[in-house]
Amino acid sequence: METGSDDVVRFRERLGLPGIIDVHTHFMPEQVLRKVWAYFDAAGPLTGLEWPITYRYEEERRLDLLRAFGVTRFTAMLYPHKPGMARWLNGWAADFAARTPDCLHTATLFPEEGVDVYVKEAVEAGARVFKSHLQVGGYDANDPLLDAVWGLLAEAGIPVVMHCGSGPAPGKFTGPGPVGRLLARHPRLRLIVAHMGMPEYTEFLALAEAYPEVRLDTTMAFTDFSERLSPFPAAERGRLADLGDRILLGTDFPNIPYPYVHQLEALERLGLGEAWLRAVCHGNAAALFELPDA
């Protein structure tokens, strides 16, 4: 299939972007990624619908594609679904970041004995961003085992990309309620709500208004695929503009059922202006991660 890299480059050049920063891309051990793809292929219970993987390529080609798009910084979002897995994933991610300098060193966690130890180790090893997946992990962000971890990450100013919305299917601990309780205890936590909090867009936008360190990533939001399932409320478009400095581009590359450029076009057709687009696609993340081109 066509990769669409020329379309992404034209988008970037039209906006005068020095590059694109994507805070929600997936790189993980090959055997884990294959299982994730198999889950999508089987229309697993959390999706229940056809979900073709557009960029089903080996790792080096996926990296080449992001660079061809002009993505200058990206992440290696990975997550455990059971105890005893996170520390191993963090070891893999540290090695991946060491051999991939344009990847923001990513780490993950799970509520288990020793989580405070390996999270501290990851921070000391240079982790720049953490991934928490409440839906796949099936855990409560307010689990007492995680309390010291959230405090550590808040103190260190390290962002946490959290899948906490109830899309594509609700989990026992998803939704704005548990996240609101977490933020009440850790108001300085730099939480990035994945997928704009889909489908609870309104409630998660309200949390961002209430807590200055809360941000949202655009992953799959506003695309034709997601608009059919969980349309973004037109009445909330003004809040997107008002929170323009705290919306970050995320895409879910490579696990998306459409070309990469479609996420960018979906943001553009919101009609919030070029300055808003430049901030979302580059400036906001550059400032958050204190990158040289901020």
UniProtKB/TrEMBL annotation:
Record-annotated Amidohydrolase-related domain positions: 21-291
CDD domains attached to this UniProt entry: metallo-dependent_hydrolases
Signal peptide (UniProt feature, chain positions): none
Alphabetic keyword roster: Lyase
PANTHER family: 2-AMINO-3-CARBOXYLMUCONATE-6-SEMIALDEHYDE DECARBOXYLASE, ISO-OROTATE DECARBOXYLASE (EUROFUNG)
Protein's recorded name: Amidohydrolase family protein
